[in-house]
Every structure is written in structure tokens, then in C-alpha cells.
Amino acid sequence: MRSRSGGSSIAACLVLVLAACARAASQEPRLGSARVVFQTNYGDIEFGFFPSVAPRTVDHIFKLVRLGGYNTNHFFRVDRGFVAQVADVTNGRSAPMNDEQRTEAEKTVVGEFSDVKHVRGILSMGRYDDPDSAQSSFSILLGDAPHLDGKYAIFGRVTKGDETLKKLEQLPTRREGMFVMPTERITILSSYYYDTRAESCEEENSTLRRRLAASAVEVERQRMKCFP
Hints:
By secondary structure, the chain is an alpha+beta fold.
């Protein structure tokens, strides 16, 4: 009786654990198909967006990327185990901005706060005390920061480039007030974007072309065999 009861208890616990895991998985936001790559002087960082979590923020940041707004910008803050923060593009770029870039960069975005957690790799908007003051500066989380949850708008996460983030964390820094800043400039040399759906379609099209070519060869082989 004892072992049977113990087995039932273990089974019940497993069911509860699996159910909890399923709930957690279902709460994770789905990445959209767009990917952005920042090419820095220390390596590339790729990230995707959470359009269902912060649609206005995603639209704003992605438009700035498409306009080339982040090119020649930099990471002004690198606090190991906490955040690497991208500067506001209106002041952080080394190249002058055109009118279209400046117009978009100076827009503020309403605070789209959510239940998504601040963990390593998450992208979170910077802002002032006003919850609706976010513009173009954002942080990449270098560790878990639960004290930020619900206070800053999360809009995406890193999909590739953790090795680059680790390099940034090893750079020498200095403290200026509340900020830990790198002693040398970490430049976003350029940026580009692509759509994973298009990449998937291209791969499928390539496979289909190979299959069609193989079929054509087989048809020709059969024709030569049957109708010499």
C-alpha cells in the first residue's frame, strides 16, 4: 500500500510539473518573422520582435532600423550581468541624420508594459520618469532583472550573438553616476534586416528546383530507355 501511494503521489507531482511547464510555455511571447542584425566592431547581434506584446514599440524601432537610424550609433552603457544599452540615436550617432530619420527618432512611444520577464537576451526600452517617454534607446539584458518587470516596455529578444554580448561584458568600464560605461566606443557600424519567412520559402524553392531537376533527368532516362 505504501509504495502504491508513493507512486501515485509522484505521478500527481509529475502531472502538476508538466502542467506548470505547459502554462509557462504558452505564456512566452511568439517572435515575429522579422530579424534585425546590428554589426558592431565586436561582432554581430541579431534580434527579433514581439509584435503581440508591444506593437507600437516594434513598429517604431523597426522603422528606425529600416531608415538606417541605428547606423554609426553606439552602446553607451555596458553593465556586466545587467544591461548593454544602445544610445538614443539623436545624440549617439557619429553620422548626421537626415530629416526622415530625425522625425522618426524624435517620436515618443506609449509605454507598452507587459508580464514578460526581464531575463538575459530580452530587449527593453529606455525611458525617463514619464512612462510614455521612450524614443530610440533600448537595453539588451545581460542577466535577470526582476526589479524592471512591468516598468519598462519589452519588445523583443536576441536570437543570435550571445558570444558578442559576452565580449562586450569583458571590456573595461568606468562609472559615471548610476551608469557603468565602456571606456572605448562600441559602434554599431551598420545594420540590416530580413524576414525568416522569405528565407524559409527560398530554401523550399531551392529544394523544389533540385527535385524538379532530378525528375527531369529521370524522365529523360526513361524516355531514352523506352524510346531509343
